Amino acid sequence: MRKTFYLKILFILFSSQLFAQAPTNSFKTDKALEKKLQVLVKDFQGVAGIYVKHLKKNTGVAIQADTVFPTASMIKVPITIGLFNKIEKGELDYHAILTYKDSLLYAGEDILGSFKDGEKIALSKVAMLMITTSDNTASLWCQAMATGTAINEWLAANGFENTRVNSRTAGREAYRKIYGWGQTTPREMAELLVKIRKGEVINPAASERIYRNMVRIYWDGEALSQIPPTIQVASKQGAVNQSRSEVFLVNAPSGDYVVCVTTKNQKDESWTRNNEGYQLLRNVSKIVWEHYEPKFQWTAPAGIEKWY
């Protein structure tokens, strides 16, 4: 009898733990918007996740929003947070002049990678290049200064259970083989951007500096191309062969809204504008903008595609 009683108690405790950890929407589902977005992912050749939240209306949509996806370059958002956390602690100086070394090079078309060994650059500019142009050499330099372990500790301490740096981080090798540089869920990456917007990352001053960097994005041909250029947007993209993703927070007339679109296992691995993942990013952005801002009269000019 006593054994049965204890088993029941254990079952209740275990069930409550599962319930407590189960992801729930912190908003009311927008059924009309959900229907429009479901059409986009219905025949997508791969796995797609979408998280949308209008902060003022407290409405949104969650489609595969708690599924883990590769971040690709979106991991540079957590890296920049880790970097600013070190700066706030006094372990790094935002205005320090650093010396570039050839050993830092990550082969590609990055701006920092074109530097000569021994050239000088301010840490503030390295941090800007990591976000604004998604410079990989700059990003890996920033990660080395912030450390993947410390970044992941900050994420865990702040309630982000699935967002992690994997590459060049002890104990994350098995995850790197699956997800690459980093991993996240649409919900977590979007909510991370919301925390920055609200001044809740590190402190209001650090959050503001991070946000300013995130509204100066060179890669504006996908989600940002579907939003009027007069509207401020903070964003970060990520792309590898089988994954195209983007997180963006729009300072819209009706109030701020955040969107994160992620993909994995894409059949289309092309690197053209017509890649199915890139099309999904643009289509989601367009639908969400028009849904929340139906009275805002704006149409992208004819022929604008050639500039992207």
Automatic annotation (TrEMBL):
Taxonomy, superkingdom: Bacteria
GO molecular function, one term: hydrolase activity
Domain Beta-lactamase class A catalytic: 49-263
Residues spanning the signal sequence: 1-20
Pfam entry (one): Beta-lactamase2
Catalytic activity: a beta-lactam + H2O = a substituted beta-amino acid
Keywords, alphabetical: Hydrolase, Signal
Protein name as it appears in the record: Serine hydrolase
